[in-house]
Amino acid sequence: MRRWRAAPGAVLLALPLLALSACSSAPASEQVQVDGGPASATDAAPVTLDATIYVPDMVPAPAVVLAHGFGGSKADLDDRATRLSESGYVVVAYSARGFGMSTGQISMNAPDFEIADASAIVDYLATRDDVTLDGPGDPRVGFAGGSYGGALALMAAGYDPRVDAIAADITWNDLESSLFGQSAPDAPAAAGVFKALWTGNFFGVGVVNRDGTVTACGRFSAQWCTAYTDAAAFGTISAASRELMAASSPSSISSRIAVPTLISAGQSDSLFPIGQANATAEQIMAAHPQAPVKVVWHGGGHDGGIDESERLDDLVTGWFDTHLAGTADMSTAFEVTDTTGTMSVQNSGTAPVVLQADGYPGVDGQRVMEIPLAGGVQRVLAPAGGLPSQVTSVPGLGSTGGLVEFPVPGQSAIFQSAPLTEPMTIIGSSSVTLTVASVDGAQPEETALFASLRIVSPSGRATLPAGLVAPISLRGLDGEPRQVSVTLPAIVTTAGVGDSLRLVVSTTDFAYRLPQQPTLYDIGLAAPGVTVPLVDTEPVSTGVAPIWWIVGAAVIVALIVAVVIRLRPRHDRVAVRPDGDAPLAITGLTKRYGDDYLAVDDLTFTVQPGMVLGLLGPNGAGKTTTMRMAMGLIMPTAGHVAAFGQPVYAGAPVLARIGALVEGPGFLPHLTGRQNLDLFWRAAGRGDADPFLDEVLDIADLGSAVEKKVRTYSQGMRQRLGIAQAMLGKPDLLLLDEPTNGLDPPQIKAMRDVLHRYADSGRTVIISSHLLGEVEQTCTDVVVMHRGRLVGAGRVADLLSGTAGRRLEDVFLEIVGDDLTVGLP
Amino acid sequence: MTIRETGYRPGATMPLRVEFIRQLRRRRTLVAYLLVVALPVMVSLAVKFGSSPGPGRRLGSGSADLVGLATAGAANFTVTMFFFASGFLLLVIVALFCGDTVASEASWSSLRYLLAAPIPRRRLLKQKLVVGLSLALGAIAVLPIASFAIGLIAFGNGPLQSPLGTTFTAGEALARISAIGLYIFVSLLFAAGVAFLMSVLTDAPLGAVGAAVVLVIISNILNAIEALGSLREWLPTHFASAWLDLLAPTVGWTDMARGAAYSIVACALCVAFATYLFDRKDVVS
Predict the structure, then answer these.
(1) With an 8 Å Cβ cutoff, are B276 and A564 in contact?
(2) Do you find a cis peptide bond into B163, omega within 30 degrees of 0?
């Protein structure tokens, strides 16, 4: 059984959601049977309404009555009711009479029946002690529903003064004009073109009785059954039917609706198009200018469109929060969805965007623009039996999109504009004035025409927005041209530069009951153009305004920056104990890796100016680690390093007086040797100080290779360039770790001379090595390390004194002991 | 010689100019920029000389999407190149320029000499990040310039058309294309921050780049899982394509603002963490 209210796809989508929501902890709900209004005009016994009450955690609370769509029942409302009650409302979902488990016959929201039922529900709410009362017997209550339920909400607000706020979605204002379409407002009052497919669809829902049997009238009351049969079989409306429909139309009591009203309409709705909601809104606004009325044109509707149910639920909740609970402040700004308003984030296709405008512009726009149309009088045929007919939309399925690109030949008059020179977004109903004449004085009993406005792209592709056409019913044509003003369907669509507007007037449409006699017509334009409505809109910023995201980010970034500044390592906490101004003073220096490995263990020694100090020890003695700590690259676990009386730490300014080569040189392979030294010096922040570049390059002795990229260098060349880099600017202290690595004996000899000369100028050199012979020949002093500890220190001359021919190696082995000489040559 | 006599000033260390020279002379920088230029060249050649059937050579099937409009003119070609490049090419390039910063110095062993020069650690990070981000922004700026020039030769000039049916004037098109480039840069700051953090943590430059790219891809995969629902809105890459809003007649800024906010905050967190770690790091490479 197809529900009237929602597109079939939405039902399929809703099922798993309902299943999911059943799993979560639902608020307390109870099933109740409420006595409604009289069963019929002749039977005063009340019908039994099957209802579910959802009670929120905090009571008493305002109440909301949810009404379902045609063909549905209260079960459809469970999910929404649960969420609404979580927002703090006592929610009543009940099956309308004739639907679900409620008894009675369908009377299409007749005042004496369905509307009386609604009042009975309000009576019932007044008896509950968990519902906020505005007065004795007067609960604070809102009504919300879509389609059939939307009309109930409007009618209930008109008839029952106790209703405090309503939200009505995709519903009718006037049932007759909904089912008998007439878009020529000036035509003499007569039935419009019968929307046969739609009407048949919903009547079909009601012919199956509750016990599964099928009868001619099913669950419909006798009067409604008759009215439908007349219309479907003969296309006529009796006076009684007309009265019946008027009584069930919000238009009959809209002047009495004085409560806050949220009216939403779907753009994709050929059953109750935007014009219906527009009429309701304008009637309420005219009668009660002070009543808050908010109008929303969303992208959904009876034909499907796009799913905005989540947003609509939020709107309804916000509306009741504002006007029942007083916990929100929703504006009455007009909201309209531009279904192709922006680009999708997921792909390069289009995505909807919600626009808003202050004040409701109606379907005629805030202003209009005349677009000239070209096309003379054209002859069209209304075919016998109305076939073949063009298919623009299929009730419940919506626009046929590309299925039928062009109207059936010979049945359509086409009027087209020149390509647009500026883009426009049409929001509302355009209007045109046609001349229509039957050919050769023919006098057709009735004439049905269908006008539509299409957008034609530069490539010639025509699109019919939402598949909507405007049905026009004319009677009494006699061969004389008649001027007919036509209000085209309210649409929201964007036409770009180069697009054209195309007015198509056809004699057939699949969804309507068509005249059976073949007739020829001449159709032309009485006015030369189409009047299109325009509205100044801006995108609705859902939630937080864009600027606040940026402000928020800026604040967070500022906080992060503040935290980072606070977390700057505090080197001034290092106890400064200047041991005079010795080039290097190491005190209690310890570096522990992990839990138990001591790379350097309580090391203390001082280096005096002019010394060439050899740091001796086997591999793994801690020489390199000590040098790295002296360069501020590694943080000591304990103890400290001072150079020239200043503490050494990461980035300590005193490091500017130290040049170093530790564990091999490091150069940018894509630059030449000279570029490397030049850029290194410029990066070192020495202002105008002289790097002595040529002097150190002489020491490196690279010859012409200095202009070659470093990646082409041998290990020895890099090593010499590394020593040269350490000497840039002639630092007062030179730290060289295994400087003779990769050098051949003549180069080692030359380097030895360089270092001696360097120290002779009052500067200090420290070299680490495991080559005892090297140290013996180069150094004035030694410090011997073993397993991270200092095991010996002194002048080389002193150590070697005593026995002639004594070598440093012997001394070393004496000091270290012979427990570990691995690594010695 | 005292410290004063050395002429050393911490604020004068590693001038941007020096770091630019150090980076610009690298083959890697050149290759990255060539790749950015190669993309529009290859696409335009493919469209011009490829075997697409039907009248008029086009990239895509419809006229209603960005790719289908690529051949409408130089401006549209430029926007389409942004669409092609923003997903991966620009991501890799931004990750490269930022992930390579500290790690490559470590791998060359030059990091310890810069730090002992001494360049204060925070200043080194700052100067390297500024240069890395500038080179990344440069690549993002080269893309539209090259695309427009190539598009002009291949498809001629034409007003920028949006798939939404809007056509923009030349001035408006310039503003929108500039804004697109800027937003893409901002949205890639997350990747830049991750790459930078990894650059401090590891000595392998390509490892840092790879880690950032993998993280962004994981974020994109999570973003594609519908079951995560609105949780995905908190992913730093969720709004990476929000620049498409700039093609709408009325620009919706909300998504771009959110995307920019997340990206900037995520980047700031990464850089802050990198700074914290680098402050205390034992440089042993």
Answers:
(1) yes
(2) no
